[in-house]
DNA sequence: CTTGAACCTTACATGGATGTCACATTTTAC
DNA sequence: GTAAAATGTGACATCCATGTAAGGTTCAAG
C-alpha cells in the first residue's frame, strides 16, 4: 500500500511515517517512480511504534530495540548488547514510575471531576 | 525553607521550581532581600506537580486544576468549570490510553530483556 | 494527452519543560 | 568586615516528534 493508505489506516500522519522510515523504524519498497510501497505488515509495525513513542521511548532506542524483538518468525534477528540491556532496564524502571504517576494523576482528575459533577450536574441530569 | 533545600528534598532543579512558581503552580514568601521562602507544604506540592507532569499534563491545565482539588482543609477552593471538566475528561482518556501503551511497551522490553538474558547471562550468574 | 490527486524532498517552525550562562545581590560563616 | 555560598533575574539553548509550506514529480482516470 502507499503512504496515504497507511496513514489513514493507522491514523498517523504521512509526515510521521516518513520520519519513522528515516529513523530506520519502518521499511518500504519504492515504485519505479520513487513512491513508497509498504507491506501489509507495516500497519502493525506503525501501531507498535506509536505505543513505544507513547511510552516515552525515543526513536534511537526503538531503532536499537526492534532487531532484538521476536517477530512472527520466532526468534530475534539480533541479540541485545549489554549496553542496550542496561538501557532497557532503565527504561523499564522509568515506565513503572510513569505508570504510578499516571494512576495518581488519574485519581486526582477523577476526584476533581466527581466533586464538580456533584455540584454542577451535567445538562440533562436530574438533581439529587 | 529556601529553594536549595526544596530542590534537594524533592530532587527537582531550582530552575524548575522557579518555573513552577512563575506558572502559578507553587507559591512562596519572600525574605526582605527577595529570596524565596517556601512553606513545608511545598514539598508535597512539588511532588504532586512532578506526578502530574509525568502524566503528561501541561502547566496551564495543572494551574487550572489545582484550585479545584480537595486539600487537607477539605473542600476545593474553586469549582471546575464546564470547559475544564471537558478537558479533564479528555485528559483522563489520554491517560488510560497511555497506561495501555506503557504496559505494551513494558511487555516488549521484558521480552527482549528475557531473551537476551537467556543467551547472555549477566556476569556472575551460573549458566544453565 | 490532460488534469487533478497523491506523492517526493527539503527546509523551517513549534511547543514546553528544563539546562545553562552571565551578572548582580543577599545571606552565612568566620 | 570580608569571603564564600546561595539566591535572584534574564536570556538563550536544547530535545524531538510533528506541523507546515514550497516546488517538483508521479500516478490514475477520463
TrEMBL record, chains A, B:
Q: Answer yes or no on keyword DNA-binding.
A: yes
Question: Which segments constitute the HTH merR-type domain?
Answer: 1-68
Pfam families given in the database record: MerR_1 (PF13411)
* GO molecular function terms attached to this record: DNA binding; DNA-binding transcription factor activity
Record Gene3D superfamilies: 1.10.1660.10
- Note the SMART domains from the entry: HTH_MERR
Q: Which UniProt keywords apply?
A: DNA-binding
Q: Where is the signal peptide?
A: none
Query: What protein name does the entry list?
Result: MerR family transcriptional regulator
Q: Which organism is it from?
A: Nakamurella aerolata
Upper taxonomic classification of the species?
Answer: Bacteria, Bacillati, Actinomycetota, Actinomycetes, Nakamurellales
Amino acid at each position: 500500500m502507499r503512504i496515504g493508505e497507511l496513514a489513514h489506516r493507522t491514523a498517523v500522519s504521512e509526515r510521521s511515517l516518513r520520519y519513522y522510515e528515516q529513523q530506520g523504524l519502518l521499511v518500504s519498497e519504492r515504485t519505479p517512480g520513487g513512491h513508497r510501497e509498504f507491506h501489509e505488515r507495516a500497519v502493525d509495525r506503525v501501531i507498535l511504534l506509536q505505543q513505544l513513542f507513547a511510552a516515552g521511548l525515543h526513536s534511537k532506542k526503538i531503532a536499537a530495540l526492534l532487531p532484538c524483538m521476536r517477530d512472527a518468525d520466532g526468534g530475534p534477528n539480533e541479540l541485545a548488547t549489554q549496553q542496550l540491556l542496561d538501557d532497557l532496564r532503565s527504561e523499564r524502571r522509568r515506565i513503572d514510575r510513569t505508570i504510578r504517576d499516571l494512576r495518581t494523576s488519574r485519581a486526582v482528575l477523577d476526584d476533581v471531576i466527581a466533586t464538580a459533577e456533584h455540584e454542577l450536574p451535567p445538562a440533562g441530569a436530574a438533581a439529587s
